[in-house]
Amino acid sequence: MSEIQAAGSDDGFVGGDDLSPRVLRGAYGRFPSGVAAVCAVIDGEPAGIAASSFVSVSLEPALVSLCVALTSTTWPLLRRAQSLGVSVLADAHASTARALASQVPDRFAGIEWVRDNSGAVFVAGAALWLNCSIYEQVRAGDHEIAVLAVNRIKMHSSVSPIVFHDSQFHRMARSGPYPSS
Questions:
Q1: E strands within the chain?
Q2: In the structure, what pLDDT confidence band is assigned to residue 179 with cuts at 50, 70 and 90?
Q3: Which CATH superfamily is domain 32-166 in?
Q4: Chain-centre distance of CA 16, in angstroms?
Q5: For residue 69, which of 144, 128, 154 has the smallest C-alpha distance?
Q6: Helix residue spans in 36-130 (DSSP H)
Q7: Where are the transmembrane segments (predicted)?
Q8: Quick check: 148 and 86 in contact, CB under 8 A?
Q9: Which of 31, 49, 52, 149 has the fewest Cβ atoms surrounding its Cβ within 10 A?
Q10: Contacts of the segment 109-117: beta carbons below 8 A, 24+ positions apart
Q11: Contact, 127 vs 172, CB < 8 A?
Q12: What's the gap between Cα 120 and its chain centre?
């Protein structure tokens, strides 16, 4: 493998005042991710958000995390819940992800959901359900990082997850994994 040298003083990087939220959103969108719905019953009604920042954190203890904008009006309600339902959305859930990311009053209109005994809400047909509780919250810039303890999981292995890339929803290609050599 050889190093490629950038020609001239303009190396193609963007920085300083040009590093705007619009530029950053486009750059961050180059990284494909899954989409999770984070939901609970609050005051007798389902409440939820969509998060493309959902990631696994630790196996011991079992932890996951997501990042939520400080401007979210739903997250302050959700973080009061004893349990949160995290649903890794399926490739058929593009409209569900859009609804949960929107500001409409009834985000759950037309969404099939299941409530467990703890009050966690799960989206029907999702690839994975995780019953979680808040482990730690950390403010980071204009977001809050919520670390969640995983209490229970239910996998739906025949369901393919949705992928979010370049501000659009995609289906995963079914060509199989790369060889392990």
A1: 36-42, 45-51, 55-58, 63-69, 84-88, 113-115, 121-123, 128-140, 143-155, 162-165, 168-171
A2: confident
A3: Electron Transport, Fmn-binding Protein; Chain A (2.30.110.10)
A4: 29
A5: 144
A6: 75-78, 94-101
A7: none
A8: yes
A9: 31
A10: 113/39, 113/46, 115/41, 115/46, 115/85, 116/83, 116/85
A11: no
A12: 16
